[in-house]
């Protein structure tokens, strides 16, 4: 559907995981002054907005996704003054700041929760979900493993947590709690941020019967998603949040909203939707098994991946605008995940970049993705920080895997893979810090580092820079605003998509084949605007691509 044009449709958003971006004071932890120091790098790359993962006060059980004060900045990241300076310095370079809004839960160290524990009669008790009983009220499993219920010491009372036990869920049924949230959101919007990425927002409504469900694992528990994700009635809260906060500002909102079926997209991202856009995780989930064999890696083909992207894009196009991405702080590196033994092949890395970058939506780039960073290979559980990986390791062994098998699984899928320090140089601590990095580096590489790639004309960094420049070329606006269509795929591992409007037509061609491939072009070629290898030929209507060749072609209209 052709909507009225919005400013955020032309953005290129770069995601920063602050702990691992750049350490300005050598304590081994990335920080806000570190982001400020790298603004010129980001401006050179060409991105126009930064989404910064949570920087608020937090005991860091889940690295900031457990907030203990929404109005204070975590000391290790800096001060409120630093944040204001970041907003101003970024603005001076034409870059906007998007913060992370985590309101499904707080930290158990938040004053509200502490007060709720201290005084059961306080109003804060009803800010969370408490239930009396000697046993857990039901058999729902939390996202990070174990029951969603945690018992209070010395009391027959439990509280509810979708994620870790240090992340108690807020009770959105309580209007007073919602009011506090809206005021907090407004305060931050008033400070001049451009908008929010909104965390785990489809979890805010629970099935209030809290009934047990048939178990889906040997632990006797059942994934809580069926009963606590995108439940009927959630639309009341999301509409209110939008009306009370977002609509009053010309802000951008991108929601982490898993569990929204395509036929409900209209409510979420349609003309009167709750959000500007939502992430679709279908392609990220393509190799992840569920149920009792959750630890297996599902086999897939490039065709499966292309099919998922196509279905997603066509569904989103009927309602609104997308948020294409291939990496974030919850995923392993896209190179290792999608390219397997080709993860370090720069041509292949550029190819998956082009595969998603010109899809219809606002593209997201995760820190280090523009350098082709890859997964690590840890040799012991001690090298892991991610609570979810540590849980999976122990759960795997409890279910009969050997320690080596369990380790292998988390090496492949750990969220820590993308949370390692950004590789700025080839130095021992990769130019991230002169101290000891809080999380061991993924690798020390002569090529996968920013200094090398900035100085190398055909690097992955330069390719990302070229994609961004192309997107920002006003003469090529169709690449951003045009409709998307998917020409037939010709039975080869070559992805094709077209961006088109009345004035122009572009065909993006991406081969994930390890061999040369020839495809038939439907329309005459007017120009080639970008390629990852010169080694292609166009002979009338036949295009021959080298292994992992990828091109942006302008077609005759
Ligand atoms: C989201 C975040 C993830 C976090 C979880 C709980 O999925 O992206 O990093 O652990 O929510 O807040
Ligand atoms: Ca620091």
Automatic annotation (TrEMBL):
Pfam families: Alpha-amylase. Residues 15-419 form the Glycosyl hydrolase family 13 catalytic domain. Its EC number is 3.2.1.1. GO terms for molecular function: alpha-1,4-glucosidase activity. InterPro entries: Alpha_amylase (IPR006046), GH (IPR017853), GH13_cat_dom (IPR006047), O16G_dom_2 (IPR045857). Keywords: Carbohydrate metabolism, Glycosidase, Hydrolase. It is an enzyme of class 3 (hydrolase). Belongs to the glycosyl hydrolase 13 family. This is Alpha-amylase. It comes from Streptococcus moroccensis.
